[in-house]
## 1
Amino acid sequence: MSSDLLLLTTINILMAWSVYIALSAGALTFGASAFMAIGCYVAGILTVKAGLPMLPACFLGAAASGILGFAFGFPALRVRGIYLILTTLGITMSMVVILENIDFVGGTVGLGGMSGATVWHGVGAVLVVGAALWWVSKSPLQRVLDAVREDDEVAASLGLNVVFVKLTAFAVGSAVAGFAGGLYGHYITFVRPDAFNVLISIYAVMFVILGGTNNFWGAALGASIMTILPEQVQVMREWRPTVFALTIIVLLLVRPQGLITKRFLTIRLARKTS
Amino acid sequence: MSEPLLIANGLSKSFGGLKALSDVSLTVERGEILGIVGPNGAGKSVLINLVTKFYAPTSGTLQFAGEDATSLSRLQMARTGVARTFQNIRLFKRMTVLENVLVADPETAVSPFRSAVFRKSRLDRAIALLDLMRLTKLADQVAGSLPYGAARRLEIARALATGPKLLLLDEPAAGMNEEETAALVEDIGKARQRVDGILLVEHDMSLIRALSTRLVALIAGMKVAEGSVESVLSDPQVIEAYLGPDDDAPAAERIAA
Amino acid sequence: MIAGQIVNGLMVGGLYALVAVGLTLIVGVLHRINFAHTEVFMVGGFVGLVIAQAVPSLPLAMVGAFFVGGILGIVVERISFRNLNSEEASITAALSSLAVGLLMLDLVHHIWGTEPISFPLVNALGSGSFQLFGVRFVPVQGLVLALTLVLVLVLYFVIEKTHTGRNIRAVSDNATAAALLGIPVKFVGQQVFFITSALAAVAGLMFALRVGTVNSDIGITFALKALAVIAIGGMGNLWGAVVGGLLVGLMEAMAVHFGFGRLAELVVWGFMIIVLLVRPQGLFGSVFHGAGARA
């Protein structure tokens, strides 16, 4: 497998995780693309115009995405379900237009001159984020997330600050997408706003749906399968959206909960007391 | 003489044109179990929903532990010490029994992100609650697959896990047989020792008689009787509401059964 | 000329309305969002292209688009919207329809490529313009406006005055009760999908006629805004979709007129977000449908 493909896979895994993190608190968003764009452009500006090295720029890009995620999330998470989907779709659609109208970042022409992302950056990011997700999944926080996701009215009546939990999850997910964006920009060296279109957000959601929404391995698996598999089979490569769409359709008919459905317990009494 | 735990004054709730609760005032004193009885549709669950802020009152005020609670949010009510169970059981079905109780621990609930970093949870406290509600053997079982009686007990255990001052029980005996109801009396008795007061909404008269220190009767959203268990249950309006407009003594005895 | 912009805005708004009406009807009746709807709109133009290349007749192209659109709607219903039961199923259905839309897009790309194709019937209505109330119209604008009006009125008539419409309203109120009354719920669902998708496809044809090209992008770049329209107008509300569509079309036209250029796009989505925050049930919506909106 080429290092290019591996890097792309790691970026897609990060995007899938960005959706997963928000979803773990019960928020299904289609905003991944917008925050990827923010991270990419902020990181790109910092390296191209301010001369920062790539990694700090990417971190700052992620931070910018996270902060804006907090800002957008605050009104957005006031609505739920389909309304949240529409709101985040609106954010994604608007982001492209906004970026096209900012001449400082190149407008419709785009932003270029970024470089330096290697496959090791991608792998490193996946390992770090993955480790964090694994850590959370074994902690009391996972229970809080699960409670908020499953029944946020009851969660609030038990004293959990549902709004804060959802908002933070949304913001963290946005930051991860932002970092992925920074990596992407510095890999592909040149981006245009319309690269961050609604299809990116849709794909990110579909990675998670395919892999399974109950644990972070599922999201990673979905992203990996849909990135790597089409490359191995010529037919699939040309018909990637079709193959992807068909997979999702069949999956939702046959096994809507995704490939990996297991919810890993955060604690087992039997093990603790034996 | 300490102040009442809960004071509801003139609570009303309308849905569109429908008046579900009209001008209901009551208090829950410290140390008591206030029973709420009334036929279906009388507004009993609406009352619990109003106190726990699942609904906002159309009018009226609430005071909890001496402080004005009328405009507190659901979260704030929970954090000042009000906990409830649900008539139609709303457990976190995908989590285990133990996890349901752990997640309600105020330490985790109030600082969820710090609890991720420090990974501490008060396991002993949770286990003690499981023991109290006879759930220890089921600790690792997924809540969605619990038998009915155990699910109800878990709701109580989870509510207790928040360390509340006031516990609101919404028809905890619904769907239980005599044996289960008798066991529930004991369970609620144990729960009583952990809280300052209980508000018990219930249809089952044996539970009401066994546990309530005082009773309030609601009919069609209005309070029609208040007082000792006997006096409320022998109130002619209450009897009529439960059994129809018949005044025979045998009917009155049926409520007493 | 502001009057010209207004006319254009109303025409574009009419197209938004035709797409939005379909979306909102499915929300109202089946409590689901059909994300494939926007791509059916796009396909309408291509159906017209195929027909027009064989027989240069606009009426025939419209009829063809209508029926192919309707059939596509039934296919989408069969694939994605069979399970009408749980609340969770609505997200599954929405995502499935999203995938079906993606499938349609890719198929179109494979058959016709990704570049816009000139639409042969673009001059079918003649190249002149006419004056009405002192405002200059181009024939296609007139056609679209007239057609939108007619189609919406026909739809209103069908829903309020016919037997089919009565069934649709019954299912919309309570599908289980309707089934108990002997109403063929599944068939009603199919009818709704047929009607709404047929209208969307015709609207797509109109769009191609106006722009002069058939373009596989327009599902995403144009019709997706119908989602914003139904949120603004109120999910499930027919008049909300019509008024919302016209309003959005006008807003965009005004934004362009006052020099916002491409930022006009933002106006639509921004307005939707504001509406969702301030009045989640939409401008015309009843609290019932919007009730699930607030977190």
Note: The domain at 6-90+166-256 of chain B is CATH 3.40.50.300 (Rossmann fold).
## 2
Amino acid sequence: MPERVARRTWPVHVVLVVGALIMVAPLLWEFLTSVKSFGESVRVPPTILPETWDWSNYTKVFDSIPFGQQLLNTVLMTAGRTAGQLLLCSMAAYAFARLAFPGRDLIFMLFLSVLMVPSQLFLIPQYQIMQELGWLNSLQALIVPGVFSAFGTFLLRQFFLSLPKDLEEAAGLDGANPLRIYWHIMLPLARPGLVALGILTVLWSWNDLMWPLVVNNDPEQMTLSAGLATLKGEHFTDYPVLMAGSLLATLPVIVVFIAMQRRVLEGIAFTGTKG
Amino acid sequence: MTTLEEVPVAAPQRAVAGRPVRRRLRRREWLWGLAFIAPNGLGLLAFYIWPVFQTLYYSFTEWGAFGGHTWVGAENYVKLLSDPEVVKALKNTLLYAGLVLLGVPVSLVLAALINTPGLRGAAVYRVLYFLPVVTMPAAVGMVWRWLYNGDIGLINHVLSLAGVEGHHWVADPRFALYATAVVGIWMTVGYNMVIFAAGLKGIPKDLYEAAELDGAGPIRQFFGITLPMLSPTAFFVTVLTSIGALQVFDVIYLMLGSNSAALRNPAIDENQTIVFLFFERAFVDNDKGYAAAIAFVLLLVILLLTIVQFRAQKRWVHYA
């Protein structure tokens, strides 16, 4: 039996390996370029493996853009948005899933409608709010609008609805109020859902481009995504350094993804089947 | 709203000892519900819901160079219809979305392959195919520009080995949008594959066993069972991919954009998409009234195409 299976699966492996090469090759090329000297990187025909492994490009990144500061901004933005969404979305989701009050379904529809509107429809007023608050070029501008989320509320509501009711009903009979039930019973039960939303929010915030580009144009206040985008190899054509910077900027999320791959893929699948 | 709450106790003869307590709880639950929803709800209202109406208002205004705006009625929309730049951008956006949709059947086939019973290393494949999804678009744009480079790019080098003459892929108006769409597909295939794989898990195994008994091979099983059973997932993926592709900005900005007017990529004017045009009008030219109108045109296009897709699904989507 195992022999038959092995014989049957080898054509599948051939197709999947070719596909995987296409998926990985650009990232591999990015890495190989990042450890070449500038002279070698522009040579025709190109060398595949670097003649001399030049790691200095990784230190040069820090001279070309305020990389450390932008990394910090990105970390703080991602952490702020994620923490905010986990708290606010789980609260709203709990109310939508478990509490009865007039107008609930109407308000939920209003939440859902936000999901269907392309983000360009709120971008201009959002920018103006930041301007009026004097928040342009600030950390708050990066974080605050991203703390509120219709998607997160929807995702967690679906999750809360799938949980059994016995525990909270028992607690309700014991006189626990909704806040205690939410905090001590629902949140611990909802951990897988919270982890899924947390991972998705981290990925999206880290990679977000348009909003950071719009609100913060001072290099010291930019995120890595925006900082790299403004380099873009126009005035600055030292490709090995650009590749080194890109890889460094994207490495944290790749590490998070590989470390938590099962959770990430389950989270994506969950949004796909329940969304 | 209070009347709803009062109705049960309006019949005093049926009131029992527990009733007033229950009623108080109900009213408290009402307050709790609002309190739980308020933080997120007010934020959404201020940053997302109200801004849509504000943008609608802006779309009927003209913005001066020094701030301030005046009501101009439908002028922006009239101008839009005959603006060759907008028409071009709309065409480009639709073409781009159409090209990226070609990745959907690819994701489906990949998901089916990875789901092959007894396949070793499926988890490794899943991770590798998903890597482009989590990679920062700014990094993706950087490396693909480099790969596409007309003089020293790896792609042209590989093509020259095969005796094919390369082009300046992202600087040539004829190719730039296609080159960008390839990256768009590369970035979304893994995501859609994971959603398809989840759909595949929901197909009952005995269907395949029955087909096997009837002597159907893997190809016939794919077209006879997998495809129809997966059509609701395929519909969902198609709708979501279209909506995402119609809003494309990152890859266009990163691969075709430039930071100064002097170094403007000759391909951008011919290949810009609606959201790129919106971004330039709103935040580079400060023509926010016109940009707002462009955003509403985009909303209209997305709505229309989504409605068309929902109507067409009756023809090809099988709900079990």
Note: The mean pLDDT of chain A is 90.
